[in-house]
Design brief:
Elements: E1 27-31, H1 37-46, H2 48-51, H3 60-80, E2 87-92, E3 95-96, E4 111-117, E5 123-130, H4 150-166, E6 173-182, E7 187-195, E8 201-208, H5 215-222, H6 232-243, E9 248-255, E10 264-273, E11 277-286, E12 290-299, E13 308-318, E14 326-335, E15 343-355, E16 360-373, E17 378-393, E18 396-404, E19 407-412, E20 423-435, E21 443-456, E22 462-474, E23 505-508, E24 513-515, E25 519-530, E26 535-548, E27 551-566, E28 569-580, E29 588-593
Parallel strand pairs: 1-4, 5-7, 8-10
Antiparallel strand pairs: 2-3, 2-4, 6-7, 9-10, 11-12, 11-29, 12-13, 13-14, 14-15, 15-16, 16-17, 17-18, 17-19, 18-20, 19-20, 20-21, 21-22, 22-25, 23-24, 25-26, 26-27, 27-28, 28-29
Helix pairs in contact: 1-3
Subcellular location: Membrane
InterPro entries: Bac_surfAg_D15, BamA/TamA_POTRA, D15-like, POTRA
Keywords: Membrane, Signal, Transmembrane, Transmembrane beta strand
């Protein structure tokens, strides 16, 4: 290139498809004089010739096509790294591949020589994107004096357009650009002009595809903000609201190509409904508590307004070493978009029979509540319910009746529910209750469940996970507190390696009856290591503390686990042993789906 010249190069090739020729292996020489190790690896990583050099099934036509394609692939890679005066040579048996006509393709190829001289690294001499919306954040590397990577220009232009769209200008676009490489000074001048367009308001929502869900209810669930200033996040919310109903297999929104005369913009919403009914089942195994089975039946659109009816059944303690078999059956009907598009109302009822080691309980619950989704991470649920239960233990029968108001706040920042590698999860609960009758006290329960995850390595195959559980009952005496509000430790969910619910307090009935405590602290830690893409191992340690009525105790367990990843989450096998406490001995085995927490 001549001194001071500014040139623009465009490579375009038309490759004809020829008849397959006999298979041929080839020797490859790939050199990158003047390139750093990282740049050399990047260039070789995009080369089709490099990738197929050891594939003897490739014929001469395949090699020729790969060579022609490699020119553009390598030049694009050089541009992406800020090299604009590179020289690329690809020779097939001594002939430059670019000079060979597709109609004169070689019938055989024995030697391939690729030489890439990147030349100097260009720097930005000008970085301008204008006009910009308030608070626009351009890429950090898009600055004068920085390596002039071509991708940064694209990122800067995209950031400029997106910022205008976030500011209500739905039709913002790139109006023009001037990208000039100066080969005398080894610099790149980038000047991008934006056209923000007018401030846009949402127009009408045009709906199609719904069959069983009434259109009026679909619009209520979607919560489309007609008349409000355009915000792309509002369209994301519309799609999220419809998807979480479970009614649709596909939800797509399309912005109108042109604006209305008043600068409003209509939006097309196309949905595809899936089957309304669904069934599911699950199973877990605990060497101490036995086998647990769960099943449910779900109708996603019961009355045509998006109502979800779910019936859950569970049997646990089958073949367990402690207590007996537990049963439960629950029904819940939920109506989305009842108090606004992000608030659902529900009614639920449940019956259960628990056969624990120290007591038996028959219970009935009924109530209604509301759940509000504030964001994709934050959910708040509150309800008012009535519970009746009969507890039978060595002291006789006790009847509990109460009105209770459970409220739960969940903040879920994990990247995966069943197998998280980063993020955190916080759940806090407050349940005040009012006793109805002489056996039931009045008070409340506070709980907290905090989990954190940190992955290491490129694929995050090594993960440290921690969990802290806290609980406290206040207001009512221990004997007058419903059993399901008290805290135990031991088993899956608290302390693995210790028998299920083996740690409580022994203060009732003259110190002969064990029950749950009014205070609980649980700490768990895991080191998860991926051995292959599907197999992993885990080392864990759990600690639990229970107190109540002036008595307290603690226990700990530790062990190893195996994980096998599947499409529905990792299959979990944990073997735990007691570390401290006098509540158990020997190994405990746990099998389930998903990580322990």
């Amino acid at each position: 290139m001549g001194t001071g010249q500014i040139k623009t190069f465009t490579l375009s090739f038309a490759i004809s498809v020829l008849a397959a020729l006999p298979a041929a292996a080839y020797d490859l020489s790939f050199t990158t004089p003047g390139a750093s190790d990282s740049l050399r690896d990047t260039i070789k990583g995009v080369s089709l010739l490099e990738q197929s050099a050891s594939d003897k099934s490739k014929d001469a036509q395949d090699i020729f096509s790969a060579a022609r394609a490699d020119y553009n692939r390598i030049v694009s890679t050089l541009f992406s790294e800020g090299y604009y005066s590179g020289i690329v040579s690809i020779k097939l048996d001594g002939r430059e591949a670019a000079s060979i006509s597709p109609l004169d393709a070689p019938s055989s190829v024995r030697n391939v020589v690729v030489s890439v001289t990147p030349g100097p690294n260009f720097r930005f001499s000008k970085t301008e994107v204008a006009p910009l919306a308030p608070d626009t954040k351009l890429p950090e590397g898009f600055a004068i004096g920085q390596p002039a990577k071509s991708g940064l220009v694209v990122e800067a232009a995209t950031a400029g357009v997106d910022a205008w769209r976030d500011d209500g200008h739905a039709k913002a676009q790139v109006a023009g650009q001037s990208i000039i490489a100066n080969h005398r000074t080894n610099t790149l001048a980038a000047d991008v002009r934006l056209a923000p367009g007018p401030l846009v308001h949402f127009g009408t929502l045009d709906v199609s595809g719904n069959k069983r869900l009434r259109t009026k209810r679909l619009r209520q669930i979607a919560g489309f903000p007609t008349g409000e200033v355009y915000d792309p996040k509002d369209l994301e919310k519309v799609q999220a609201r419809l998807r979480r109903t479970g009614i649709f297999s596909s939800v797509a929104v399309t912005e109108a190509k042109t604006l209305n005369p008043d600068d409003s913009m209509n939006v097309d919403l196309a949905v595809v409904e899936q089957k309304s009914r669904k069934i599911g089942a699950g199973a877990e195994l605990n060497s101490d508590d036995g086998i647990g089975l769960t099943a449910y039946w779900l109708h996603r659109n019961l009355l045509g307004g998006g109502e979800r009816l779910r019936i859950d059944g569970a049997i646990s303690g089958i073949g367990g070493a402690t207590g007996g078999t537990d049963y439960s059956l629950g029904t819940r009907i939920e109506r989305p978009a009842t108090f606004g598009p992000d608030t659902s109302a529900y009614f639920e009822t449940a019956i259960s029979q628990s056969n624990e080691e120290d007591y038996d309980e028959n219970a009935f619950d009924i109530g209604f509540g509301a759940s509000r989704i504030f964001s994709d991470k934050l959910t708040v649920d509150t309800a008012i319910k009535y519970r009746w239960s009969k507890v039978t233990d060595s002291s006789g029968e006790t009847y509990f009746r109460q009105i209770y108001l459970p409220t739960n706040v969940i903040y879920d920042n994990r990247n995966n529910d069943l197998d998280p590698t980063k993020g955190y999860y916080i759940k806090t609960g407050l349940t005040p209750y009012v006793g109805l009758g002489g056996d039931t006290g009045t008070g409340g329960q506070i709980t907290a469940d905090l989990r954190g995850y940190k992955g290491f390595g490129a694929q995050e195959r090594f993960v440290l996970a921690g969990r802290l559980q806290l609980g406290r009952v206040f207001g009512s005496d221990l004997a007058e507190t419903p059993r399901d509000y008290l805290f135990y430790s031991g088993g899956g969910g608290t302390v693995r390696g210790q028998p299920y619910q083996s740690l409580g307090v022994t203060i009732l009935d003259g110190g002969t009856l064990t029950t749950g405590g009014t205070e609980f602290v649980g700490v768990s830690g895991e080191a998860r290591v991926g051995i292959t893409d599907t197999i992993g191992v885990v080392a864990f340690y759990d600690y639990g503390y229970v107190a109540g009525g002036g008595e307290s105790g603690s226990q700990a367990g530790a062990g190893l686990g195996l994980r096998y990843k599947t499409g529905i989450g990792p299959i979990r096998l944990d073997v735990g042993f007691p570390v401290s406490g006098d509540t158990g001995s020997g190994a405990q085995v746990y099998i389930g789906i998903g990580q322990a927490f």
